[in-house]
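[job 4471] stage=fold_predict status=RUNNING
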Amino acid sequence: MILRIILGLVILSFSCVAHAQNPAGKVMHRSGAGQLDSTGWTDAQSTEGKFSVRLPGPFDDFTVKNSDEGPQSGQFFVIGTVTPEGVRLSVTRASYDNPDAAEHYFRNWQTGGALRGKQEDRRVTKYRGFDAVEISASDDSSIIYARTILVKQNLLLQTIESPLSQRTAGEQLKVTFFQSLSFEP
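[job 4471] inference complete, writing structure tokens
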């Protein structure tokens, strides 16, 4: 439960604040999109976010625009799915109006300040030449695997949230999901 609250706060910083402050700023491009191939995965491409990823099910694709004058103003491009087992996978591209915002939020991930709870792993790494941080954390009911990538003035956030009872399923999805992300800088 704590992890869900923490994940909610992380996602909030990327997109939900924008939606809450400006509900009219959310544009749903597609819902339940994608055709599964023989492996059970689909190629999910963001309509406006200039990224794609493989997902293990039909996905939603939407954009949230936040014109608030705070550091979180910008556009947030999201695609995501939920498996029948309750594992949630999503990618958010946060394109901030403030040129320093992405780097500021990324530093929180680098220092381990982005997630609370029982942090299981945190690695500072690179993905396709860009700085990245991978984190996993859990509580008594769920586990989250997350990767944040700093791409110029944008952050790309990949998350897998799984009930603890589906931990193995979440781990099995991680390799394909994380390695399939492609994006335009």
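[job 4471] summary: The chain has a mean pLDDT of 86.
[job 4471] exit 0
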